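$ ./design --mode recover --in tokens.txt
reading tokens...
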């Protein structure tokens, strides 16, 4: 197997480079890869080297590629296109380039952009071909949340468009479940947001009088503040959590016990609630309103906590009191994709602020 080197993938983790290499090698000889989002050309170059000798055609599209892209892609077989992906898709439809064996979506990160890229290109993918999304990670390093990518991808998965879906690092990918004929709509994404809102609200409103939090101390204190359980919260060991008399267990993921371990200890599925980093941020937002003093007492850094709590408060004041998840428990109707995209962009910024605040309780690695 050829060793890859000198790949300028500055935005990819080393493990992600291996994932993308293996995905590119799944493309059949003579096949076609289309990438949306060229940046410096690193991922296109990586896929070009991974498929060397297989006569795979690679097209990479970016409305404004980085200055180094042309240099990085010279002397390769990669065809770089400058322009909007939707515009080039219309050209593609009228040329003999069809079909595609692998579609890699890593362009604009607004909801409108991600949906437009998928809608423009997914129908060209061969049945059983690969569709790969990057940045499916709502809380990457506590920075800007890729909430829009999550909503778009979750909508694609909910509609059953992809099968054999797998997530590795910030990549999530699957194979098309037959020809892709439909396009994602604002209504489709609203349903996904509504289901997420229902799940978060359901956790937030649980009666935690008999809850058992399997977590490190600070995270358990955070949960206590969220659920207004006060000093009555139980922080149990894994052995204690397996007690069949306990009503249910709440644990964080991935820092807490994997649900499989809880099952092995005899805790039924219905008694376990897993809280991921996205959910934790929204629960923390609720706790700020209902139990601020308790959180203040148990944060690891009061100065950081006060600073980020004030920034969150200012953001909420600027953008109104009706916020996610409450404003999507009854999803809005007749919302355009652009309007929905604007709302989700605001939530991305809000999640970024909340994730900073979350880190004063637990060093979460999404």
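writing sequence...
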């Amino acid at each position: 197997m050829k060793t890859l080197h000198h790949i300028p993938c500055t935005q990819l983790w080393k493990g992600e480079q291996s994932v993308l290499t293996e995905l590119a090698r799944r493309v059949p000889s003579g096949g076609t890869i289309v990438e949306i989002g060229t940046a410096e050309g690193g991922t296109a170059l990586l896929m070009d080297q991974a498929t060397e000798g297989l006569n795979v055609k690679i097209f990479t599209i970016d409305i404004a590629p980085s200055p180094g892209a042309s240099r990085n892609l010279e002397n390769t077989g990669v065809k770089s296109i400058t322009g909007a992906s939707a515009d080039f898709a219309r050209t593609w439809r009228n040329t003999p380039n069809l079909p595609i064996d692998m579609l890699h979506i890593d362009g604009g990160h607004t909801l409108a952009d991600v949906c437009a890229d998928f809608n423009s290109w997914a129908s060209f993918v061969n049945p059983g071909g690969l569709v790969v999304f990057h940045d499916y990670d709502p809380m990457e390093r506590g920075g800007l949340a890729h909430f829009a990518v999550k909503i778009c991808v979750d909508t694609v998965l909910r509609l059953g468009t992809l099968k054999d879906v797998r997530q590795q690092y910030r990549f999530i990918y699957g194979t098309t479940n037959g020809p892709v004929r439909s396009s994602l709509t604002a209504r489709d994404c609203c349903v996904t947001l509504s289901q997420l809102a229902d799940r978060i609200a359901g956790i937030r409103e649980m009666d935690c009088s008999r809850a058992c939090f399997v977590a490190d101390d600070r995270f358990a204190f955070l949960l206590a503040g969220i659920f207004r359980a006060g000093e009555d919260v139980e922080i149990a060991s894994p052995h204690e959590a397996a007690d069949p008399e306990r009503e249910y267990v709440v644990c964080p993921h991935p820092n807490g016990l994997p649900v499989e371990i809880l099952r092995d200890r005899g805790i039924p599925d219905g008694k376990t609630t897993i809280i991921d980093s996205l959910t934790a941020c929204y629960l923390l937002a609720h706790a700020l309103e209902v139990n601020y003093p308790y959180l203040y007492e148990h944060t690891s850094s009061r100065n950081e906590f006060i600073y980020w709590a004030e920034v969150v408060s200012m953001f909420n004041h600027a953008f109104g009191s009706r916020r996610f998840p409450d404003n999507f428990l009854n999803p809005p109707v007749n919302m355009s994709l652009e309007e929905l995209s604007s709302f989700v962009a605001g939530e991305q910024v809000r999640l970024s602020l909340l994730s900073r605040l979350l880190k004063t309780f637990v060093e979460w690695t999404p």
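exit 0
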